[in-house]
Amino acid sequence: MSSKTDQPLVIAGKTYQSRLIIGSGKYKDFAENLAALQASEAQIITVAIRRVNLGQDKNEASLLDVISPETYTILPNTAGCYNAEDAVRTCRMARELLDGHKLVKLEVLGDEKTLYPDVTETLKAAETLVADGFDVMVYTSDDPLVAKRLEEIGCVAVMPLGAPIGSGLGIRNPYNIRMILENAKVPIIVDAGVGTASDASIAMELGCDGVLMNTAIAEAQDPVLMASAMCKAVQSGREAWLAGRMPRRLYASASSPIDGTFF
């Protein structure tokens, strides 16, 4: 029997039943985003403050008119920021727009081609935001030392990439993710690179606390159906991790013992 016990996902003192976090970009409209969100059963939706209207433009429809902050946790993110100063400014703007909301997703990118995280600027921004009272969920590389440093700074969740943003390549380096998990005292949530349901399951089977995705759902041929698939994948992957998989073996092993058989 597995020795693992299931623990709830707790981020910044709040407990969540779902371990799937979805985004709000690349959908054809807010209605499709809401339908995907409902199908995913996610309770957290991340929003790029620089790209999605949360009220900063009074002349355009606001996402908050469709997706209620009373029902879902809105997670403002700093997508599109390439230095610590811009990321900090974006988080402070989100706090104003959302009436003092402290939970943010920090991401500081290195270049427009790879969208790979700039670790140096990420560390700098994380220190400033934590000192300013924010609850920081932070997107980073899959470097175990960097992940631990971000935890030590005070980030409430560390989110290593599975693969580059929007690539759909899946979990390219599961061994680094496992090393991060072994030393973590905060939730570890795979962020970026998931392409399909099996990728989400693999992340959860490694022992991750959750998975964050946007493109994998929004760019699917049927985003709402893919959102439903991702919901099931995260749940099944979590159960598989809790159950404890069988050992890998080089050769076959009989399902039934042969001792005591007649011939």
Question: Main traits of this protein?
Answer:
5-stranded parallel sheet, about 260 residues, alpha/beta, 3-stranded parallel sheet, about 15% strand, about 35% helix, 8 helices
Question: What do these coordinates show?
Answer:
The chain is of the alpha/beta class and 263 residues long. Helix content is 35%, strand content 16%. It has eight helices and ten strands. Strands 5-4-3-10-9 form a five-stranded parallel beta sheet. A three-stranded parallel beta sheet has the order 6-7-8. Helix 1 runs parallel beside helix 8 (223-243), helix 3 (119-131) runs parallel beside helix 4 and helix 6 runs parallel beside helix 8 (223-243). The radius of gyration is 20 Å and the shape is globular. The two termini are 32 Å apart.
How do you describe this structure in short?
The chain is α/β, with parallel strands linked by helices and 263 residues long. It has helices at residues 30-40, 84-97, 119-131, 144-153, 174-183, 197-205, 215-218, 223-243, and strands spanning 9-11, 14-16, 20-23, 44-48, 73-77, 103-106, 135-140, 157-160, 189-191, 210-213.
